[in-house]
Amino acid sequence: MELSCPVPRAETERVLLGHGSGGQLMAELLGKVITPGLVAPGPAEDAALVPFGDGQAVLSTDTFVVTPRFFPGGDIGSLAVHGTVNDLAMRGATPVALCLAYVLEEGLPIDELARITASVAVAAHSAGVPVVTGDTKVVGRGAADGIYVTTTGLGAPLPGAEVSAARGRPGDVVLLSGPIGCHGTAILSAREDLGFDSEIRSDSQPLNRLVARMVAAAGPELHALRDPTRGGLASALNELAAASGVGIEIEEAALPVPPPVAAACELLGLDPLHVANEGCLVALVAPPAAGAVLAAMRDGPEAPDARVIGAVTAARAGRVTARTLVGSTRVVDMLVGEQLPRIC
Amino acid sequence: MKYLDEYRDPVLARRLLDELRKVATAPWTIMEVCGGQTHTIVRQGIDELLPAGIRMIHGPGCPVCVTPLAMVDKAVAIAARPEVTFTSYGDMLRVPGSIGDLIGVKARGGDIRVVYSPLDAVRIAEAHPDRQVVFFAVGFETTAPANAMAVLHAAARGLANFTVLVSHVLVPPAITAILDAPDNEVRGFLAAGHVCAVMGYTEYEPIAARYRVPIVVTGFEPLDLIEGILMTVRQLEEGRAEVENQYARAVRRTGNTAARDAIRQVFTVTDRTWRGIGEIPASGLALAPRYAAYDAERRFAVERVGTGEHPSCVAGDILRGTRLPTDCAAYGTACTPRTPLGAPMVSAEGTCAAFFSAGRHRSTVGSP
Amino acid sequence: MCLGIPGRIVEVSAPDDRPDLRTGVVDFDGIRRAVCLVYTPEAEVGDYVIVHVGVAISRVDEAEAARTLAVIRAIPDALAAELGPDGARL
């Protein structure tokens, strides 16, 4: 169609904060600017399978830029370990080794760096993965916000695992490991500018052992995994639906939304389905194995409240729909850009 | 949450819908004049559960959407100034003006901060005396007491570095404008519960009487909305045209006296242009002359820079309810929440954005 | 328009010289925030208020809230009557 001047135009020439929020803007940036000519087209996965010796290795990398750096339930150090360990796990891999890189801003208190590093060590130890190498750079004051942490993980595929975002099949059961929205709400509450105060803690935790139990219970019947981090459960489900070419139907009433998460979302006009998580996962499992996987999930500290939230359909491929509380249906869309508190 | 969850009960929702089916014998067109209500209706799919003849039209109830283009352009121009810290409710940041949006200003180095409350903007001004802090005071009557309080606080503290860019609008003149339109199809209104929590509903009584339309003050949860629709349809079926209050837990007939006093003290009624509709007499609030020192438009003399709306945007028809987003050629193609051509696609509560995020694409409307 | 969320007042305070400038802490199911209570002079600790952008605009009337629900509950459940007690799910 013809667009004549004057056109109210959206910003297209600069990177926006919203480009980093795990929603449509980010997908656009990756698809148009970053992946072409760099990565072969294929389903968007959390980690890559690469040929390695006679077998395969799994690789993943992630950079962490959270504000505030310390929040209830974690800090940028533990988050950096859990994030990469979990991305490996979402490909059915057990973590073998981690690399750690810091970008430090001139003026960062050494004590803070020590606390963050200690937190990295505790998190890596509890996930059972060694930090084997790393790098540290310092930039001038104002050139970075305190500290950025990058972790790169090397993983080994779990025996029997055939997990891929593209393996969802019609009929699959959709499982969710735990309550949603806790990480994003904890971060919001810890940010001074909103003036919120709560006891809610981030759900940040390693999911590698949970995934190992699930793979042991189901083998190749465990089709797809995703940890709904930035962009929330809505983005994770949309990515799975797109990568697998299937539809996903969820039951809104089945979603575990803790009261403080629901309250923060009501206050700021956000959708709990768009709020970030750092310690839960969503799984697509063939129906015969669903019971065993659910039992395996609940048999551990990470997912005592694991539950069925929906099913995969052949209809409406690439789309996620929710049955609403009052019994109607709606499409669950990805977050567009940055989550902005609204008044109306 | 208490006072929210009880009003989302699926069993009671079905009972109300059953009752509505019994009561409704003729087709009726009803407008909700509140973006929050539009959001609940579309997000919960309530309109799809209504009896076939009951049609909901989503009125000009999103303050972000009706903020005039010229005002967005002024905000963008002020926010780009190096001495300014521009504070705003989050939903104004993506509204396209004719020279860009506030998010774009931020990406180019502008100091733009999202605040939850206008009182937070006052605090920022106190903490940063070296900055000119401007707050973008948009909204309906609901938001006016808070915005008035920010001005009163700033005045009490003698803050010389705090101003507000005011673009307030009022609901009753908009309802009257809709009813006066020759092609009006709306036979009943759901009035916005939180607007009435502040203003009461005596203003609506002459409108209901003069135009013979039922007006039901309605809350925001699924049960509130279905009951509000039921009460409206009952009146229509019985030939009544009264103001009724479904949202009695929060709304008294005379509203909130203290809040209304503050609005009267700080603001004065003015003519206001509504984006997509045009100028409506006495439909807005501007700063009262005695608070002129806090007027950002005076402090930062901004020339009108904008030109006009996108020619293919039918926002006016959509806000007046004569067309649905899915009737618009640009909807979902050239115009999406990512690249909005008009205001109703911007805020989550804008009719077009609410339709889009609920997956109501032109090709799928009407199919199961 | 106008997100207004009910929360319970857990604390009320005011400057000694300006008892009318009341602020309070309001609890929203585990999220607490400072809220301006100037427009709801009648609201006390334990009361629920509707909060919009950090300002309480109305005190929730508990009796009216219960009455609204009672009216809806009084509508006979046609489907449940047909299906019996186990069929009362949507």
Report what the structure shows.
The complex is a heterotrimer of chains A (344), B (368) and C (90). Chain A has 2 domains: 45-157, PurM-like, N-terminal domain (60s Ribosomal Protein L30, Chain: A); 165-331, PurM-like C-terminal domain (Phosphoribosyl-aminoimidazole Synthetase, Chain A, domain 2, Alpha-Beta Complex), CATH 3.90.650. Chain A has 8 helices and 15 strands. Chain A has helices at residues 24-34, 76-89, 110-127, 182-190, 208-218, 232-244, 259-268, 287-298; strands at 48-52, 55-64, 70-71, 74-75, 93-105, 131-139, 147-157, 173-176, 196-198, 222-226, 247-251, 282-285, 307-313, 320-323, 329-331. In chain A, the strands form 3 sheets. Chain A has a 7-stranded mixed sheet with strand order 10-12-8-13-11-14-15. A 5-stranded mixed sheet of chain A has the order 1-2-7-5-6. In chain A, strands 3-4 form a two-stranded antiparallel ribbon. The longest helix of chain A has 18 residues, at 110-127. Chain A is globular, with a radius of gyration of 20 Å. Chain B has 368 residues and is of the alpha/beta class. Chain B is built from 15 helices and 11 strands. The model of chain B is unreliable at 363-368 (pLDDT under 50). Chain C has 90 residues and is of the alpha+beta class. Chain C has a 5-stranded antiparallel sheet, with no helix packed on it. Chains in contact: A-B, A-C, B-C. At the B-C interface, α1, α6, α7, α9 and α11 of B face β1, β4, β5, α1 and α2 of C. β9 (196-198) of chain A pairs antiparallel with β3 of chain C. Chain B: One of its GO terms (molecular function) is iron ion binding. Chain B: It comes from Phytohabitans suffuscus. Chain B: This is Hydrogenase formation protein HypD. Chain B: Belongs to the HypD family.
